[in-house]
Amino acid sequence: MRTSHASIAAPSSDPEGTMETHSTPPGGHSVRTRSQHQRRKRIVQAAAALASRGGVEAMQMRTVAERAGVALGTLYRYFPSKMDLVVAVVGEELDLLESSIERRPPSAATPSSRAVDVLMRATRGLMREPELADALIRSLIMAEVQTPFGDRMTGLLLRVSADGLTIDQATEEQLDLAGSLASVWVQELLEMLRGRRTYDQIQRRIETASARLLADV
Amino acid sequence: MRTSHASIAAPSSDPEGTMETHSTPPGGHSVRTRSQHQRRKRIVQAAAALASRGGVEAMQMRTVAERAGVALGTLYRYFPSKMDLVVAVVGEELDLLESSIERRPPSAATPSSRAVDVLMRATRGLMREPELADALIRSLIMAEVQTPFGDRMTGLLLRVSADGLTIDQATEEQLDLAGSLASVWVQELLEMLRGRRTYDQIQRRIETASARLLADV
DNA sequence: ACAGAGATTAGAATGTGTTCTAGTTTGCCA
DNA sequence: TGGCAAACTAGAACACATTCTAATCTCTGT
Predict the structure, then answer these.
(1) Nearest Cβ partner of A183 from B3, B7, B183?
(2) Which residues form the HTH tetR-type domain (chains A, B) (predicted)?
(3) Smallest CA–CA separation between A103 and chain B, in Å?
(4) Which residue range is the domain that position B207 belongs to?
(5) Last residue of some domain: A80, A100, A115?
């Protein structure tokens, strides 16, 4: 069977977290009991484990439910769609990157090279689990939700390149430039996962783009 | 039903058209009889028509087959997966853009603004059929194949900004820069389709990026 | 301790991409 | 003209995301 039956669709949006429905949605930003938290965590872990072996395809909802020890219905109560689950997995990855950056902030001299540092660090992190990375990035690009890889990475880039600048403080132009660099990175990563770029090529390209885009940020 | 059942998977690769299987694959680069050509065209048209109303979701393989007046099996003989069909539809769109550019080449003075011209022209073209655009771009980003929106657009940008330069003649750096600009554009387009950017924002962002990236190409 | 609300479960059902089967039609060539 | 290979067709079959159902469990307030 050469085929991929896997489906990637948009996650159930509700862009602004409005619309708190009748019942208590365990995934929502409402209070979560310890056991709910545990359950949610188990699910995400099971999902990540499956995805890192075999990508999204291996991460079948039935299988995830099974591995996490919950019923399919429960899985769907926590994550209304497969995309939502993928997004959650990505969140974890990004948390990892951010804490890595806190522990060991990029120390290069220019804004541009600090940005390169962050992006290449993220790249290496993702390369460790290529299947997972592939699944996550593809899925996220598709997602209707706030795309962590776009927005959070833009924020990170601003922070390291303009020394602590936050998204709210940045000028339009700074946002544009950091955002553009993030776009380039995402696309390059995708190309790498497709086998159409080597790590070195990515690095060169990121460096070139960063040097131009963040020259004077 | 708020859900999207639609599947977007990778198109059946065979990246270099190698592996000419036993039978004559109508999709391949082999000779095509007139009737096969007609049939293929009818299929792509039917697919595009469906996608422009309702996106990929509306473009169901059964429906496409029906509208094109072929059996489901035949559809799958021409396009081994839904992705392949989507890619074919995109090809048509890009042909359109390229011929538009031939008819009326961008006349701005600087390489950077000629590039902006091309990108914004493409943007407007895609905006005319947002559903179709959404379907196409999302799908293409996922595709394992040579991504038309990346590579062909990069080629186009080089051509207009460095006056007739082709991909083969370009230096690595030129390729990097034009490629990065194409990446930015693709991502911006996606954001627009998600409703997170206006046309004006895109234009500003493209202009900013282009000015930096293509300043001296 | 008990009632009621919400959470959970097992499993059936549905929808759509993809594959498979068996038979029919078409085009070509000896 | 007869026959064969490839193309085509209708439709069944299969896989997996998602939804639905009915029953059971768990907690919380009284």
Answers:
(1) B183
(2) 37-97
(3) 30
(4) 83-213
(5) A80
